[in-house]
Amino acid sequence: MSALLDAHLVASRGAFTLDIHLEIAPGETVALLGPNGAGKTTALRTLAGLTALTGGHLRLDGRDLTALPPEKRPIGVVFQDYLLFPHLSARDNVAFGPRRHGMDRRSAHAVADKWLDRVGLGSHGARKPRQLSGGQAQRVALARALAVDPQLLLLDEPLAALDARTRLETRGELRRHLADHPGATLLVTHDPLDALVLADRLVIVEQGRVVQEGDAATITARPRTDYVARLVGLNLYRGSGDGHTVVVADDFTLTSTDTVSGDAFVAFPPSAVALHLSEPSGSPRNTWPAVLTDIQHHGDNLRVRLDGPITVSADITPAAAAQLDLSPGRALWVAVKATETRAYPAV
Amino acid sequence: MKTARVPVPLLIPAILGLIFLILPLAGLLVRTPWATLFDRLAEPGVVEALRLSLITSTLATVVCLVLGVPLAWMLARVTFPGRRLVRALITVPLVLPPVVGGIALLLALGRRGIVGQWLDSTFGITLPFTTAGVVIAEAFVALPFLVIAVEGALRGADSRFEEAAATLGSTRWTTFTHVTLPLVAPGIAAGAVLCWARALGEFGATITFAGNYPGITQTMPLAVYQTMESGDLEGAVVLSLILLVVSVAILAGLRDRWLTTP
Which residues form the ABC transporter domain (chain A) (predicted)? Predict the structure, then answer.
């Protein structure tokens, strides 16, 4: 499948430079995931034509869009806070795009009604945006963006403004609509769950650069930066591999059942970390002394951070925590089984 | 809420200030010849001045809207070199004594003025001492009020709505008419009312640039002045009362919609 969107986005502002390649196939949804200030929204704005590119190229279906103003681009945008026109009804908001594309009022209203029906708001057409709930406004914004039949649909944190409960419902619905969209879709988010549920492929940006991309399974199994590792909840270390061992700090080696050589990552989940009061003996291949620095609730368990030759996060049960008499400053032994770690090449 | 004790050094000037503002208005009402009021109101001079005032201030407001809204939009939405200078220039007529404004207008648009000369020789148009001159004098003085009010409204309005419109295929002009204008309509209306009130009360620039000819350029404030000068205090009071009623009516109308302070 050849790419519908083929973009190399370069935009500089002050000291910050965005420089990323993006390719999206027809019908594919790509999530642009990254921490705040990574350049995600800038990337979306350059695609929409709201921020000028200072370099690179932007082709959609073989057509060069670089010099086109936003109104001439075959795109639809769902903004983070939706930006529904407050003076227009939901129907007129959705009909706004078709009207600007030369459709007469009646046809535009028919298109709007069709889209409102599709997002389950057929009976809400006459309402003004302020009379809609957050979830409803999100759906109207989606209908408005799709009503112009965009080749490229852009969503900027589409669920960020919703409360947790509405978010869950809306996420499922959004997934259905994105699956039906024949064009390319780019979703900008900082929420890994949104990205994992909604996107076919993840592109992770940090400081204006792509640091990792691939499907969810690959990224969650083999994170390549601290940000990604934290995102998917793994401890991640980079070092020099030699067979089953990887040197990750001065004189400190982690052992894995995987085989690597040269520049390599080692990753393991916090749940694989066991804590002991004295040096453990037996099967674990990785043990080291450490000092507890932080304890936080994490679901039903506690997540603790430990300093030592390497910094590590561990998940333990409240019962275990009580038994170990955990408090910051406490000296402990850390154990991680070799079978619970994954080692993979960094290049 | 329980009111705390107000310090006397603040209380007394506050009360004096209030009296200072209200006393003259009360004086106006006390001296109004209520018995003969309706007869005096019906005098042809009064009706004519009122009619002229309403027409010229309304036309001046229209001129201000046509020129001022695009100007405000340029200041709020377009970055161009010298924008700060332009904004400063716009506020000059705001602080300029209106009489000086009238003289400036005369020098520019008068029969011997730089533009007026050309208007006269090319089109045979003379502006000073005509009703059109009144409209121009009023618009000159009132325009800054409108521009400042509308620019404030535009800056307060979220320009991302305009970006959203652009992504939906709307050109900048259509966005202006279909999104920006409806969003800032209350601000424009408030600006227009302020502008109209300013034009209605205009005196200095009008009398300097357009003169004081009953039926042609004599608006209400000019009529008040002339009636007073001719020794007819009662007549001046009646004319003043009309202006007071109109002003208060505007203020009351505005308060309900746009001027309510939080």
Answer: 2-232
Instruction: Measure the CA–CA gap between A29 and B226, rounded to whole angstroms.
Output: 78
Identify which of B161, B171, B182 has the shortest CB distance to residue A83.
B161
- Which residues 175-194 on chain B approach chain A with CB closer than 8 angstroms? 178-179, 182-183
Residue of B161, B163, B170 with shortest CB distance to A100 = B170
pLDDT value for B260: 46
> Average pLDDT for residues A325-340, to the nearest whole number?
88
Q: Please tell me the total count of domains within chain A.
A: 2
A86–chain B nearest CA distance, Å: 8
pLDDT digits (tens, 9 = 90+) for B49-67: 889 999 999 999 999 999 9
DSSP codes of every residue in A87-110: TS-HHHHHHHHHHHTT--HHHHHH
What is the sign of the dihedral through the CA atoms of B215, B221, B222 and B224? positive
B168–A148 C-beta distance less than 8 A:
yes
Q: Give the span between the Cα atoms of A243 and A262, in whole angstroms.
A: 9
Do A85 and B169 count as a contact with CB atoms less than 8 A apart? Answer: no
Confidence of residue A347 (pLDDT cuts 50, 70, 90): confident
CB B208 within 8 A of CB B2: no
Mean pLDDT value across chain B: 89
The ipTM value here is 0.79
Q: Quick one: average pLDDT of B11-31?
A: 91
Q: Let me know if residue B207 belongs to a domain.
A: yes
CATH of the domain at A116: 3.40.50.300
Residue A240 sits in a domain of what CATH number?
2.40.50.100
Q: What percent of chain A has pLDDT over 90?
A: 55
Interface contact flag, B182 A79, Cβ < 8 Å: no
Chain A contact set for B170 (CB, 8 A): 71, 96, 100
Residue B259 has pLDDT above 60, yes or no: no
Q: Measured between CA atoms, how close is B77 to chain A, in angstroms?
A: 14
Same domain, A254 and A224: no
CB spacing of A83 vs B160 below 8 angstroms:
yes
Tell which residue, B262, B8, B217, has the closest CA to residue B102: B217
- Same-domain status, A200 and A317: no
Please list every residue in chain B whose beta carbon sits closer than 8 Å to the beta carbon of residue A87: 182-183
**Domain interval for residue A40:** 5-228
